[in-house]
Specification:
This protein has helices at about 5-20, 25-65, 75, 85-90, 95-105, 110-125, 125-135, 140-155, 160-165, 175-185, 205-220, 225-230, 245-260, 265-280, 285-300. The protein is built from 15 helices and no strands. It is elongated and about 80 Å long.
Length: about 325
C-alpha cells in the first residue's frame, strides 16, 4: 500500500531525527521508522471512515428534518442519493475495514465538527449539486462521485490537515499520499462486490520492507563516508554551510545508488530531486541535482555503482 516515495520520505524524516539526536540508537530509530509507516496505514483506514461519518451526518440531518413539528415538503421527501450511495454502502459493511478500525480503535468521535464541516463543504460544491440533480442512478456514477470527492474536495480541505497535524506528528505529510492510495483502492470495488473486497496491504511485498530497512541502515552507517564524497564535489562551498536537510537527502540518494543494484539510476535521482522540492530550501533540488550528477559519474568510474537485472545492465 505504502508507495516507495512515501517510504523514502519516512526514512528521510527518521534519518534527520537520528542525526539530530544525541542519544537515539539505530534500533530505536528503526522501530520508530516502521511505527511511522504503520501510522500511515492507520490514516488510510481513518480517511475511509471519515467519508462514512460524513454520510452518517447527512443522514442525521434528514432524520431531524422529518421530525420537525411542521416539516416542509423537502423535509418529508428528501433527496437520499448521497446517503444511499452504493459505494458507501459497500464500505460500511466491508469486513477488512471494520476489522481494522475496531482493532486499532480508530474513531472520529472526538472531532464531530470535522465531519459536519466537511459535509457542508461537499454539499455546497458544484460536484455535489450535479450529482444530486442527476437522473442517473448507477454504481458507476456513485463510485465516480466518491472518488471525485476525495480527489477534488477532501484532498484540498485545509481543516482536515490541521486536525491531522494536531492528532499525530506522523500524519503531517501523509494525507495526499494516502488519498491517492484510497483512490486506487476504490477502483477494485465493482457493482457485484460484497463485504469481502480486500483493501491494500501495508507493504506491497517483502521487498519493500527490506528496501526500507536497508536504506535506513546504509544511510546511517555510511553517513560519514557519504559526507566525504559530497564534499569533493561542492565547489566554493563549505560542507558545514550546506543545508543539513540537503546533506541527508544526498546521503540517502548515494546509499540507494550504491546499495540497490536493481533500481535504475534515473529513478533514484528523480525521486530525491522531487523530495528536495518539498523538504529542503528553495532551489535545493537544482543544487542537489548538480551534485548528484557529478557523484554518479564518479561512482561509475570507480566501479562502485553497478546496476544488474533485466534492462539495467549498462544503463546510463
Amino acid at each position: 500500500m505504502v508507495s516507495r516515495r512515501l517510504l523514502r520520505i519516512k526514512t528521510l524524516q527518521i534519518c534527520y531525527a537520528y542525526f539530530k539526536s544525541d542519544n537515539q540508537s539505530i534500533a530505536q530509530s528503526e522501530k520508530e521508522l516502521f511505527f511511522s509507516i504503520q501510522k500511515s496505514y492507520d490514516l488510510y483506514h481513518y480517511l475511509f471512515l471519515l467519508m462514512l461519518d460524513v454520510s452518517q451526518f447527512a443522514q442525521s440531518r434528514i432524520d431531524l428534518g422529518s421530525q420537525k413539528r411542521i416539516p416542509t415538503f423537502d423535509d418529508l421527501n428528501p433527496n437520499k442519493k448521497f446517503v444511499e450511495n452504493k459505494l458507501l454502502k459497500l464500505l460500511e459493511k466491508n469486513t477488512a475495514l471494520n476489522h481494522y478500525l475496531n482493532n486499532q480503535k480508530l474513531s472520529w468521535i472526538k472531532y464531530p465538527e470535522l465531519a459536519k464541516n466537511l459535509y457542508l463543504e461537499i454539499r455546497d460544491s458544484e460536484l455535489y449539486k450535479t450529482y444530486m440533480n442527476s437522473s442517473v442512478s448507477s454504481f458507476t456514477e456513485d463510485k465516480k462521485f466518491i472518488s471525485d470527492v476525495y480527489s477534488q474536495i477532501i484532498i484540498n480541505f485545509e481543516p482536515l490537515y490541521q486536525n491531522l497535524e494536531e492528532q499525530s506528528i506522523y500524519w503531517n505529510d501523509d494525507a495526499e499520499f494516502v488519498i491517492n492510495m484510497i483512490l486506487k483502492t476504490l477502483r477494485s470495488f465493482k457493482v457485484n462486490s460484497d463485504e469481502n473486497v480486500e483493501l491494500m496491504p501495508l507493504f506491497k511485498n517483502d521487498e519493500d520492507i527490506e528496501f526500507t530497512k536497508r536504506l535506513f541502515r546504509k544511510t546511517v552507517l555510511n553517513y560519514k563516508e557519504y559526507e566525504g564524497l559530497i564534499s569533493q564535489f561542492i565547489q566554493n562551498w563549505d560542507l558545514e554551510r550546506l543545508a543539513f536537510m540537503d546533506n541527508v537527502i544526498m546521503c540517502m540518494a548515494i546509499a540507494e545508488l550504491t546499495e540497490f543494484t536493481d533500481i535504475p539510476t534515473k529513478v533514484t535521482l528523480d525521486e530525491y530531486i522531487e523530495i528536495a522540492k518539498y523538504y529542503s530550501t528553495q532551489k535545493s533540488n537544482l543544487f542537489i541535482n548538480g551534485i548528484l550528477d557529478k557523484i554518479v559519474d564518479h561512482l561509475k568510474k570507480e566501479g562502485k555503482m553497478l546496476k544488474t537485472g533485466r534492462g539495467l545492465i549498462g544503463e546510463i
